[in-house]
Amino acid sequence: MSTPEPVLTARRWRSRRSAAVAGIVFGVLLITALVMMQVALAGESLQSLESDPGRQALVRISLNLVPFAGIAFLWFIGVVRDQLGDVEDRLFSTVFLGSGLLFLAMLFQGAVTVTSLVQMIPSESIDEAIWTFGRGSTQALVSVYAMRMAAVFTLSVSTVALRTAAVPRWVPFSGYAVAMVLLLVAGTFTWARLLFPAWVLVLSVAILLTPARARSPEPPTA
């Protein structure tokens, strides 16, 4: 007599719709966080942030959004891998998973650094040199290294999507273009960071709107 599937592994949690919803949540939250952070830190000096409580509030709100974006991104990765099933390519799957986790780790580290800097603002223990160092290291970590990992993630996902025909062909081809931009200019133009969550958002909407292909049946168990 068969037993029902556990709730956490039920079919609805592993469906294409689940992956699409997770990707949409990630894209919306990360775009919002990056835009708010960019607006709040538009001034180059520490004094411009110290004298404006509104900017400080924007930074804190954006930092609170990052963990939830990360949770949605992890769910997106997990469901996409599950959806690949037997057609999963080990090479691209490894690159896909590794680059996604590295991107998330670097994004979280950058958020932790900014959180520490913002918490030091009301006190007198922070000076211009500490602020410059923290801002520069966070900028390099997120815009240079994390975005390069995002580019590798986009390349691998686009290749898998193209080979499996899971979404319209223009989506993976646009992913190749986004990856090239992130690889070449993400460290120079900070607004280019928005391309990655925007593309994940587009991919997720395409997954949501594209009918699922039939998965190969699992071999019978003895």
Radius of gyration: 20 Å
Shape: elongated
Number of strands: 0
The low-confidence runs, each spanning 5 or more residues with pLDDT under 50, are 214-222
The biggest sheet amounts to:
none
Class inferred from helices and paired strands: mainly alpha
Helix share of residues?
over 70%
Look at the structure and give the mean pLDDT.
80
Alpha-carbon distance between the termini?
15 Å
* Percent strand: under 5%
The arrangement of helices and strands along the chain is HHHHHHH
Helical stretch count? 7
Structure characterization notes:
- The chain has 222 residues and is an all-alpha fold.
- Helix content is 73%, strand content 0%.
- It is built from 7 helices and no strands.
- The protein has helices at 16-40, 46-50, 53-84, 90-120, 128-164, 170-185, 195-209.
- Helix 3 runs antiparallel to helix 4 (90-120) and helix 4 (90-120) packs antiparallel against helix 5 (128-164).
